């Protein structure tokens, strides 16, 4: 956290990575590494999804991680759909729907699922 406060993202990322590699039971390194590495790149999204799933497992009521995980899953579903992995896209979108925290979020994700499952 101190490295982030000093705007030293590389050192913060290295510290979070080390904590994760050492098997941290605290949600924060997983969450912050996901935040710091989130990009539009598909591989980074998959890694962010894995990190956020671990963070949510460790702190199931930490809303920022839940919201970010839902957002990452929606982005992954769209990316999967774009490369014709339709079944996987629907599965990931349904996971995002389960994470949605508000009616507007649920409606947005449900419309995505409806679009993907139309004959």
Q: Can you give a write-up of this model?
A:
With 119 residues, the chain is mostly helical. The protein has a single domain (2-117), classed as Tetratricopeptide repeat domain (Serine Threonine Protein Phosphatase 5, Tetratricopeptide repeat), CATH 1.25.40.10. The protein has seven helices and no strands. Helix 2 (9-21) crosses helix 3. The mean pLDDT is 90.
Task: Find the count of extended strands (DSSP E, 2+ residues).
Answer: 0
CATH topology: Serine Threonine Protein Phosphatase 5, Tetratricopeptide repeat
CATH architecture: Alpha Horseshoe
Radius of gyration: 15 Å
Overall number of structural domains: 1
Along the chain, the helix and strand elements come as: HHHHHHH
- How would you characterize the largest beta sheet? none
Short summary:
This protein has seven helices and no strands. With 119 residues, it is mostly helical. It has one domain (2-117): Serine Threonine Protein Phosphatase 5, Tetratricopeptide repeat, CATH 1.25.40.10.
List keywords for this structure.
119 residues; mainly alpha; globular; 7 helices; single chain; Serine Threonine Protein Phosphatase 5, Tetratricopeptide repeat
Write the layout of secondary structure elements.
Elements: H1 2-5, H2 9-21, H3 27-37, H4 42-58, H5 63-82, H6 86-99, H7 103-117
């Amino acid at each position: 956290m101190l490295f982030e406060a000093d705007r030293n993202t590389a050192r913060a990322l290295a510290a979070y990575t080390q904590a994760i590699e050492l098997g941290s039971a605290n949600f924060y390194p997983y969450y912050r590494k996901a935040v710091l590495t989130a990009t539009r790149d598909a591989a980074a999204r998959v890694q962010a999804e894995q990190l956020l799933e671990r963070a949510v497992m460790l702190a199931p009521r930490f809303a920022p991680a839940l919201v970010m995980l839902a957002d990452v899953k929606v982005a992954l579903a769209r990316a999967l759909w774009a490369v014709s992995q339709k079944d996987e896209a629907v599965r990931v979108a349904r996971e995002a729907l389960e994470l949605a925290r508000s009616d507007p979020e649920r409606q947005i994700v449900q419309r995505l699922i409806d679009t993907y499952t139309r004959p």
